[in-house]
Amino acid sequence: MPHAHTNSDCPLCTGKSRPFMSIDGVEYFECGRCDFIYADPALLASVDRGEPLRKYDENYWQAELDAAKDRSYGSSLARFAEVVLYSRIPIRRFIDIGTGPGFLLDALSAYLPSHQGKFYGVEKFPPHEEYRSSHANYRECDLGALEEKFDCGLCIEVLEHLTPAMAHSLAAAMVNVSVDGSIFLFNTGLTEYVKNEDPQYLDPFGRGHITCWSVKAAEVLFGPYGYQVYALRGKSWAFILEYSRERSRVPMEDRIWTAPEHNKQLLRDPRMGSAMYILGLESARAY
Asked: Dihedrals φ, ψ of 193, to 5°?
């Protein structure tokens, strides 16, 4: 166990931090400048050296499969539908970053079967083949190894597992797969969520949640890579990244009324109807 520090400079923005709380013997710190919450820097350094707190093996995935399936056929469908309507460019390829077993690919294919070739998922530490999706666009590799470009994506319950160094690697890899106007929704418990709703979200050894991000922290991380960062009103567990030089003045939730017709049609299916389109509208307006 790394030795606990009593104070720390933020590893993300170098601002002054103070102790936030101790969980399972691990001290967490809160940055006063960017609102980033992070585990003991010695522990983060051990993760960066390749000493993960949790091995992503068969036991891990057995424990995660039910939760992953529940998300994929529920809340993740809603997040997909709304981010499609937030996009200002036509979406021809969608990527689920850190797709795990790839159940979201299966869920999207079930609800939007006529568009299933547009959906991709990438996972660096996948479960065994018998536990994961057989979708043709499931990719077992690092995001940076992909050759395709993507107009839109999700990253669900991933960022809180990453050290700042790992998050910088993710941001750099995203640049390589983005085009001008690419949009991504990140689903992760933000600082506001941890402070006001669920402090137990921080969990170093059970779920491997070693960092907690804020919109400010996301700006520090992703801004230098060319991404605009947007809060989502009422959602303390998500934010938007858009690969663009210009910052939109239109509130994100108002974009749903001017979404490209191509994207509206993406959410409709000749066999399944317009349920996903309606889900996107209502999810964007629900909070």
From this structure: -65, -45
